[in-house]
């Protein structure tokens, strides 16, 4: 059992969290601007459109920032220290998630990462990143 | 706010409380203490105040009528009233908003207040990406955000450990001379102490971070004409102000180390017709020490990635050639929640009014004060603002 905060879906985010249960990571896509965005917003950041498409991300990205967290969030105590990151997806948006499959000392900003899936919790499944070459 | 150049608005008084960790007090209690102190030291009648601007209080975050409740608690009947919610930028933002309300003719004399008892009671609930996309994956708040930001800066320019250590010690020396700083922070600190402090969110150290506390401040803003009529012979003018909120929403800047200060810092100096060298005392918002280095670079004191070598060449103490956060800043005095930016603001006023006693900068004429607020998703901080204050 886990005491971590559950993933919760709202009007804006239900398609995203539903897809995570099928291990698919969806981005909002604005065809008029040809731009992706994440997290899900009520309106395109680039045009006045609200009828955005949901498109599956490739899962490939680049490590933008990485931190070894010694001060756990609620429910994360047993896994401390754990690695948190910002990864820029190939499609453009930056995503904040934990890193798995690597030691903190071996991670380098700029390296290629890929999205992997963690545990199901509440209305969604956790997404994490691993180095592009690592086994899950 | 070009009208500020004509010096139509004056700060005539200020007050602050002792900063205390876990005081067990309330924001309203702190507000009452600091307003009584302001009325006493400024020597004006409460009925003179016809405008009121406050920050929110994290300890009272559930109350959607906060400014009105404070007015009622304090016995004010303002003709213009607002609470400002641009996070740590709200403190400086309120001085600017007060100037605008005065210029617009809505009021003449504004009480700008910040009071928060967040270390005793935190009632905040940050809905949106914080609770939906951050906390469920292990986010614990600003520590992680600034650990990540530091790693991005380090990857680009190298980790500026020497500059951070020097800044930590300089600010702590200020806190040792500042009787309102939190007592538990008023202990001598060496660069070795800083460098050996434990990692909280690698590469962020414990001594990079603010400690939350309880406290408050009040500032009185009026027209320059009214200040003269009331007999104030010492006044400080806000002479320029710029703010930006939710910097770079379209991700045009593919570098998370760049903040809104790259816009508002140079603008605020240009509006005041000043260069960085013209600033006598710098009071940058310091929720984390790395933020001070980024501001030095992005306001134009040095170039991108040059903070380490720049700080090495300068003396940051009150007696030095570039005094920074002379009362300890928030990092060494404490962060009273959303009133935190008032620590930097009030220290600038103490210096310009010549009230800083043992840590008084010699005859300062101009101060640059800044504010930082709000952590957006996957980026740098969201709001940045900057004001130049000038002693008349």
UniProtKB/TrEMBL annotation, chain A:
Coiled coil (UniProt feature): none
InterPro entries: ChsH2_C, NA-bd_OB-fold, Thioester_dehydratase-like
Residues annotated as transmembrane: none
Domain called ChsH2 C-terminal OB-fold: residue spans: 54-117
Taxonomy, superkingdom: Bacteria
Pfam families for the chain: OB_ChsH2_C (PF01796)
Descriptive protein name: ChsH2 C-terminal OB-fold domain-containing protein
Organism: Enterovirga aerilata
Lineage: Bacteria, Pseudomonadati, Pseudomonadota, Alphaproteobacteria, Hyphomicrobiales
Automatic annotation (TrEMBL), chain B:
Xref: CDD domains: SCP-x_thiolase (cd00829)
Pfam family, one: Thiolase_C_1
Residue span, Thiolase C-terminal domain: 253-374
MF terms (GO), sorted A to Z: acetyl-CoA C-acyltransferase activity
Top-rank taxon: Bacteria
InterPro entries: Thiolase (IPR002155), Thiolase-like (IPR016039), Thiolase_C_2 (IPR055140)
Name of the molecule in the record: Thiolase family protein
Biological source species: Enterovirga aerilata
């Amino acid at each position: 059992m886990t005491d971590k905060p559950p993933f919760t879906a709202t009007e804006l985010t239900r398609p995203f969290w539903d897809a995570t249960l099928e291990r698919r990571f969806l981005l909002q896509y604005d065809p008029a601007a040809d731009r992706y965005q994440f997290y899900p917003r009520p309106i395109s950041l680039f045009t006045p459109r609200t009828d955005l498409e949901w498109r599956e991300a490739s899962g490939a990205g680049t490590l933008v920032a990485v931190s070894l967290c010694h001060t756990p969030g609620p429910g994360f105590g047993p896994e401390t220290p754990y690695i948190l990151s910002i990864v820029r997806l190939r499609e453009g948006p930056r995503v904040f998630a934990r890193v798995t499959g690597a030691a903190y000392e071996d991670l380098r900003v700029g390296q290629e990462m890929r999205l992997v899936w963690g545990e199901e919790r509440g209305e969604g499944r956790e997404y994490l990143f691993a180095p592009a070459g690592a086994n899950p | 706010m070009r009208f500020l150049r004509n010096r139509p608005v004056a700060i005539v008084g200020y007050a602050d409380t002792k900063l205390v960790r876990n005081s067990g007090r309330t924001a309203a209690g702190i507000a009452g203490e600091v307003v009584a102190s302001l009325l006493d030291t400024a020597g004006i009648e409460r009925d003179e105040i016809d405008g009121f601007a406050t920050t929110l209080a994290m300890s009272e975050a559930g109350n959607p009528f906060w400014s009105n409740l404070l007015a009622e608690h304090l016995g004010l009947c303002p003709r213009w009233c607002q609470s400002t919610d641009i996070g740590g930028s709200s403190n400086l933002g309120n001085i600017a908003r007060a100037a605008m309300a005065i210029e617009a003719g809505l009021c003449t004399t504004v009480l700008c207040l910040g009071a928060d008892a967040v270390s005793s009671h935190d009632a905040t609930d940050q809905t949106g990406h914080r609770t939906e996309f951050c906390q469920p994956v292990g986010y614990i708040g600003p520590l992680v955000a600034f650990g990540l930001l530091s790693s991005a800066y380090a990857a680009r320019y190298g980790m500026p450990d020497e500059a951070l250590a020097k800044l930590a010690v300089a600010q702590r020396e200020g806190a040792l001379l500042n009787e309102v700083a939190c007592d538990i922070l008023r202990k001598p600190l060496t660069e070795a102490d800083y460098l050996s402090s434990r990692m909280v969110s690698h590469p962020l150290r414990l001594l990079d971070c603010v400690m939350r506390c309880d406290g408050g401040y009040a500032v009185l803003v009026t027209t320059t004409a009214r200040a003269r009529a009331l007999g104030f012979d010492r006044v400080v003018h806000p002479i320029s102000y710029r703010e930006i909120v939710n910097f770079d929403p379209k991700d045009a800047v593919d570098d998370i180390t760049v903040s809104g200060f790259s816009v508002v810092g140079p603008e605020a100096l240009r509006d005041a017709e000043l260069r960085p060298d013209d600033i006598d005392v710098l009071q940058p918002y310091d929720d984390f020490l790395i933020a001070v280095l980024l501001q030095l670079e992005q306001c134009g004191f040095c170039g991108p990635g040059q903070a380490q070598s720049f700080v090495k060449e300068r003396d940051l103490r009150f007696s030095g050639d570039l005094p920074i956060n002379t009362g300890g800043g928030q990092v060494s005095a404490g962060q009273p929640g959303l009133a935190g930016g008032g620590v930097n603001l009030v220290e600038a006023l103490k210096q310009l009014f010549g009230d800083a006693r043992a840590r008084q900068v010699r005859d300062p004429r101009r101060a640059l004060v800044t504010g930082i607020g709000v952590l957006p998703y996957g980026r740098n901080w969201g709001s940045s603002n900057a004001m130049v204050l000038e002693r008349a």
